[in-house]
Specification:
heterodimer, A: mainly beta, 6-stranded mixed beta sheet, B: mainly beta, 4-stranded antiparallel beta sheet, about 0% helix
Chain lengths: ~120, ~110
């Protein structure tokens, strides 16, 4: 069965520090992988996605993520965090190419707090 | 292009009542998915509509239903509300809902059941 695990429920970093949010997935084949961010009272905004090819994916707001097939991981990184990055981050997995099963399976989220 | 819009943004209902939530997708998008977000269960898939047909369904009771209109706008209905239905209901639209198609989310409808 498909599943996504985000081991860290809450992370606190200082502004300007680097950030890595962990994501592990379980899926029968190489899935599509996504990172979304949710600010309080808002919907989900797509940060980046991985389909195939280069395993290092660049996204918006200076975020990047690296797909590691051997570890079934898709960790999100940012070299220098800004106070406005404080939000909840969700990793999600989608079905394989060509499938009409367009639904996403989400992790439980990681709440990011940024200290000034 | 305008984003995904959801109405209303907030709703308060009492147990036993029913509620209808509305979602207008991005212009040109034909697939609409609904998700329920709660602190206890996280984000869970409810169902997906494409060309006025329910194409995928999550593991929710029959009290949860939906439909899609010819203009791709979608509504979801929850009958006989229970306290546990209190949640943020998110709608997402995609071009055609195939795997990998980017899902664009609306701001959600916050439903509180008293």
């Amino acid at each position: 069965a498909q599943s996504v695990t985000q081991p860290d429920i809450h992370i606190t970093v200082s502004e300007g520090a680097s950030l890595e949010l962990r994501c592990n997935y379980s899926y029968g084949a190489t899935p599509y992988l996504f990172w979304y961010v949710q600010s309080p009272g808002q919907g989900l905004q797509l940060l980046l996605k991985y389909f195939s090819g280069d395993t290092l994916v660049q996204g918006i707001k200076g975020f990047e993520a690296e797909f590691k097939r051997s570890q079934s991981s898709f960790n999100l990184r940012k070299p220098s965090v800004h106070w406005s990055d404080a939000a909840e981050y969700f990793c999600a997995v989608g079905a394989r190419r060509g499938s009409t099963l367009g639904r996403l399976y989400f992790g439980r989220g990681t709440q990011l707090t940024v200290w000034p | 292009k305008a984003g995904v819009t959801q109405t209303p943004r907030y709703l308060i209902k009492t147990r036993g009542q029913q509620v209808t939530l509305s979602c207008s997708p991005i212009s040109g998008h034909r697939s609409v998915s609904w998700y329920q977000q709660t602190p206890g269960q996280g984000l869970q898939f409810l169902f997906e509509y494409f060309s006025e047909t329910q194409r995928n369904k999550g593991n929710f009771p029959g009290r949860f239903s939906g439909r899609q209109f010819s203009n791709s706008r979608s509504e979801m209905n929850v009958s006989t509300l229970e306290l546990g239905d209190s949640a943020l209901y998110l709608c997402a639209s995609t071009l055609d809902g195939t795997a990998g198609d980017t899902q664009y989310f609306g701001p959600g409808t916050r439903l509180t059941v008293l």
